[in-house]
From TrEMBL:
Protein name: RNA polymerase sigma factor
Gene3D superfamilies named among the record's database cross-references: 1.10.1740.10, Winged helix-like DNA-binding domain superfamily/Winged helix DNA-binding domain
Domain DUF6596: 185-285
Listed GO MF terms: DNA binding; sigma factor activity
GO BP: any one term: DNA-templated transcription initiation
Residue stretches making up the RNA polymerase sigma factor 70 region 4 type domain: 116-167
Residue ranges annotated for the RNA polymerase sigma-70 region domain, each copy included: 25-79
Length: 432
């Protein structure tokens, strides 16, 4: 295996295994920042050895074993050990040194769930909680998190560093809270799981359009939360949203990895078991008798697509109304952009373009690639190919995802071909 191929393979393994690795180490050392450092130490060793020795049969276990040994060595020889053993002695899980050797081999509770509640502790600001959790559980880089939130990478990096220091200084317990404390942290936990899922559903960067394993992990955590907090409608709303969205995975990319848009997907291949689970979760949220929150409303939007046997049967008028409700409770330029798409589908591209044009002056969307992408699509439908081409070119320059860039450049080429054809006396494209 070449060094570049080994690097790509190790990067992929890290994406898959890092959250479990950090969570297991955090239970062991009771320090999230230290757990991440130990995990990265194991990664560095893998980068040094695997290109020569080859990838182990179970790379996750190899990384865990390596990190565990470094943790034990650290606890044996550093001054930190006294405080750590003292903390372990006070905790409900009493470990001896022999226990520390074996604590990683059997899971006590759900470490990932403990980690997410730890990183969402109220001692941190909301922004810090989200950034740190996405970094540790989602395996996202600071650049990817910054891109998702439309802020500077340095801002995200500072938040993460400060958050780890704060958790360590406060000696936050590595546990799932109960009662009112659970409710207090729930909204941030839901937000992070939602963002994890979104990153898996449409990757902000890299060479793959989707990361299904990240979505599966987010869905698993959501299902566990629904058992822990069964009377919280937004928990069921988020689970419903993820179940329905997950049903489309087989149809979202071509065999060679190119993106397939929703309206072009083969709906016969959607996973109808996941759709039924999602609709049932949405019904549970509705039966709790409280106004639908943002996750339940998004689930209701996804349900409109799931219930339509063909793309032409989609109830875009209802979707537009649901987006209108969503803008009232969580107003944001991104939600407004989605509403514009629904308006365009329900009432024609000219109406949608009018809303999109109003968003072009929004500072937070200046580097957001989906704004010119949506605008290009609407212009294309209106037959304004030259303008559409410019928008797709700009969108391609802004995206960090290689597959999405290829897709946008193909649309650029389609527009260019139409412009050239019109100059040669060909017919202009008609609105869809």
């Amino acid at each position: 295996m070449t060094s570049s191929a080994a690097q790509r393979t190790i990067d992929a393994i890290w994406r898959i295994e890092s959250a479990n690795l950090i969570a297991g180490l955090a239970r062991m050392v009771r320090d999230v920042g230290l757990a991440e450092d130990l995990a990265h130490d194991a990664l560095v060793i893998a980068l040094e050895r695997w290109p020569d020795t080859g990838i182990p049969d179970n790379p996750g276990a190899w990384l865990m074993t390596t990190a565990k040994r470094r943790a034990i060595d650290l606890m044996r020889r550093s001054k930190l050990s006294d405080r750590k053993y003292e903390e372990l002695g006070r905790s409900s899980d009493l470990y001896t040194e022999h226990d520390l050797e074996n604590t990683m081999d059997g899971e006590i509770g759900d470490d990932l769930l403990r980690l997410i509640f730890t990183t969402c502790h109220p001692v941190l600001s909301r922004e810090a909680r989200v950034a740190l959790t996405l970094r540790l559980l989602g395996g996202l880089t600071t650049d990817e998190i910054a891109h998702a939130f439309l802020v500077a990478e340095s801002t995200i990096a500072q938040r993460i560093v400060r958050a780890k220091r704060t958790l360590s200084a406060a000696r936050v317990l590595f546990e799932v809270p109960l009662g009112e404390e659970l409710k207090e942290r729930l909204s941030t936990v839901l937000e992070v799981i939602y963002l994890m899922f979104n990153e898996g559903y449409t990757a902000t960067s890299g060479g793959n359009w989707i990361h299904p394993l990240l979505c599966q992990e987010a869905l698993r955590l959501g299902r566990i939360l629904a058992e822990i907090a069964p009377t919280e409608p937004e928990v069921h709303g988020l689970v419903a949203l993820m179940e329905i969205q997950s049903s489309r995975f087989k149809t979202r990319v071509s065999p060679t990895g190119e993106p397939i848009l929703l309206m072009d997907q083969n709906r016969a291949l959607w996973d109808h078991l996941l759709i039924r689970r999602g609709l049932a979760a949405l019904e549970r949220a509705q039966k709790l008798g409280r106004p639908l929150g943002p996750y339940a409303l998004q689930a209701a939007i996804s349900a409109c697509h799931a219930r339509a046997c063909t793309a032409s049967e989609t109830d875009w008028t209802r979707i537009a109304a649901l987006y209108e409700a969503l803008t009232r409770i969580t107003p944001s330029p991104v939600v407004e952009l989605n509403r514009a798409v629904a308006i365009a589908m329900a009432f024609g591209p000219a109406f949608g373009l009018q809303i999109v044009d109003e968003l072009t002056s929004e500072p937070s969307l200046k580097e957001y690639h989906l704004l010119p992408s949506v605008r290009g699509d609407l212009l294309m439908k209106l037959g304004r190919m030259g303008e559409a081409k410019e928008e797709f070119e700009r969108a391609a320059s802004l995206t960090h995802n290689a597959r999405e860039r290829e897709f946008l450049l193909k649309r650029t080429a389609e527009c260019a071909a139409n412009v050239s054809g019109n100059r040669g006396g060909g017919r202009s494209a008609r609105p869809n």
